[in-house]
Amino acid sequence: MKKIIILKAIALVLLISSCSDDEGQDLIDFTVNFSSETVSTNEEDTAVDVQLNFSRPASEAGTITLSYTGTNAEYGTDFTTSPNGETGTLSVPVASGAQNVSFSFNKLTNAIEGSTKSVTFTIDGFDQTDWSQGTTTSTLVSYTPIASTNGVVDSENGGSNIPNQVYFDFSSATQTAVKRDTWEIAFYNGTENRVFLNSSLLVSAAELTGVTDLLSVTEASNLPESMELNALDAMFQPTTVTVNTVAELVQGLPVGYQQYGDLEAGISFTDRPEGNLDDTAIAEVSTTAEENFVYIISLGSEIPTEPAETGSIKHTGDQRGFMKIRILTDGNSYTLQYADLAETESYNEVTVNKDAAYNLTAFSLTNGDTVSVEPTKEQWDINLSGVFAYYGNQGPLVAGLTFSDYVLHNTMGGVGLYQVTIEADVPTYANFTRTDVEESAFVYDNRAVVGSGWRDAFGGVINEDVYYIVKDADGNYYKFDFTAYTSAEGERGNYQFVYERL
User: Fold this and answer.
1) Share of the chain above pLDDT 90, in %
2) Beta carbons within 8 Å of 369's beta carbon, 6+ residues apart
3) Exposed (0-12), middle (13-18) or buried (19+): which is 266, by Cβ within 10 Å?
4) What per-residue confidence (pLDDT) applies to 10?
5) Coil, strand or helix: which one is 148?
6) Around Cβ 439, how many Cβ atoms within 10 Å?
7) In sequence order, which residues have a C-beta less than 8 Å from that of residue 75 and are 6 or more positions away?
8) Number of CB atoms found within 10 A of residue 291's CB
9) Residue 190 and residue 100 share a domain
10) Residue span of the signal peptide, if any (predicted)?
11) CB environment 113-133: b (16+ within 10 A), e (fewer)
């Protein structure tokens, strides 16, 4: 029996680490595509970057020449570009090794209400004779919001350390990259009073039931009651631990195979992956102050700076330490009290007001301030979190699990998503049309439908049998499919996907 458990544990380690050897590949043709056929702006935008993607990193420096035509828009009066395009064309430099390049479109005026105003840019040529155009040779920059039709997206997750979370909005073809370690907790801006943990940083939290005095808690403190918790020993065999002090509790608080918990008793020190309001490690914050207790927070893991070997990942470093917090609310704002675990003299206190424009307001316990992380709730559809952690089941084991290459969708913002598995009588990605959409299949209560299932954890390759359908908050339908798992050099943490509006 012990041998079977050890073998399954080894398989679990392989699954979570998802390392693979890079087989190498021949140099493919160098082609250039606009990342999207359309780029939207609104009245507040004064500039927008327009991106061109390459089929592989440029092996030599060069220049891309673009031409443009305006609809009710003139150069110098309604817009300019950087590089300069006053002559009717603009030359965009490409550095050796670049995977993409962009230029700036600068708005000088806005569209008159009810009118159409746009500029179309077209790939005109190259100074390198072996460069060629791809399939998306032009893009339309609109002065008013329009839903993007299709595109190819190279994620900005940042490589084998996966330093960034990336939020992507299909209709505006916009991705927003945010470092994973800029926040630890986030306050819900809806009617309920909830607090979420940064799962991409492996943050966890344990409640000290009945304790309301923040400064009375240190590692030496006794728990209000002893806790019987499940754990895995060094041989990955289930065991039970009795926890009597805070010092003993923090031994099993960080996310990892030996993390403590008891799912049958409802004890988990991480949020559930589905992302629902009633599945957070921190209980709903009460408007009655005495009902809100102190929590011990594991601040997660550092982001390593040394890159992993080719084909591997290295996204969890040293443990970042522990803090203690207490949260109060009046229903319209939160009051956060926080301090280092060893602090007994004073604590920090801040007020975080609810902002209905956002699902969550993120907060950095290490820097002591709110942080801009998520775009507004209508302006993102999927989150390429890269790293994702929670306490749960993996085969026969129950443990703190850490996944790489993880993708979530914006259930709080009203985005629906479902997976299409290619089998008999199911259209391929290329053949899927609007008439194939199944409204009843959209999932609005589980943000982890995509998860890490889009790639093969052992083989290090794309799962070619699945793709995904999205319905955004404005009712636009998109299909998307992952096309790359690594960069052209084989570095993990560089994802690519294609999408198309239905």
Assistant:
1) 78
2) 350, 363
3) exposed
4) 45
5) coil
6) 9
7) 68, 81, 85, 86, 88
8) 12
9) no
10) 1-24
11) eeeebbbbbebbebebeebeb
Tokens describing residue 159: 């490589």
Cα separation, 187 vs 196, whole angstroms: 6
What is the tens place of the pLDDT at every residue in 219-262? 999 999 999 999 998 888 999 999 999 999 999 999 999 999 99
| Dist CA 217 CA 317 (whole Å) | 27
3-state secondary structure of 64: strand
Sheet strands (E) in 365-396: 369-371, 382-394
Domain containing residue 215: 182-219+267-371
At 277, give phi and psi (nearest 5°).
-65, -30
189 occurs within a structural domain? yes
Residue 28 has pLDDT above 90, yes or no: no
Whether residue 174 lies inside any domain: the answer is: no
Q: Dig out the tokens for 474 from the structure.
A: 């404005």
Per-residue model confidence as pLDDT tens digits over 257-295: 999 999 999 999 999 999 999 999 999 999 999 999 999
Does 366 lie in the same domain as 311? yes
CB 423 within 8 A of CB 466: no
Determine the straight-line distance between the first and last CA of the chain, rounded to whole angstroms.
52
Question: What residue spans of 246-326 are helical by DSSP H?
Answer: 246-251
- How far apart are the C-alpha atoms of 83 and 81, rounded to whole Å? 6
Strand partners, 91: 65
| CA-derived radius of gyration, the chain | 25
Q: Are residues 69 and 137 in the same domain?
A: yes
Please tell me whether residues 103 and 191 are part of one structural domain: no
Structure tokens belonging to residue 478: 């998109």
Q: How far apart (Å, rounded) are the C-alpha atoms in residues 363 and 473?
A: 26
Give the pTM.
0.81
Beta strands in 359-453 (DSSP E): 360-364, 369-371, 382-394, 397-409, 416-421
Please tell me whether residues 112 and 214 are part of one structural domain.
no
Helical residues (DSSP H) of 217-364, grouped into ranges: 246-251
User: Same domain for 193 and 328?
Assistant: yes
Q: Are strands 360-364 and 238-245 parallel, antiparallel or unpaired?
A: unpaired
179 Cβ contact list (under 8 Å, min separation 6) = 163, 164, 165, 303
Residue 22's pLDDT is 33
- In eight-state DSSP terms, residue 449 is S
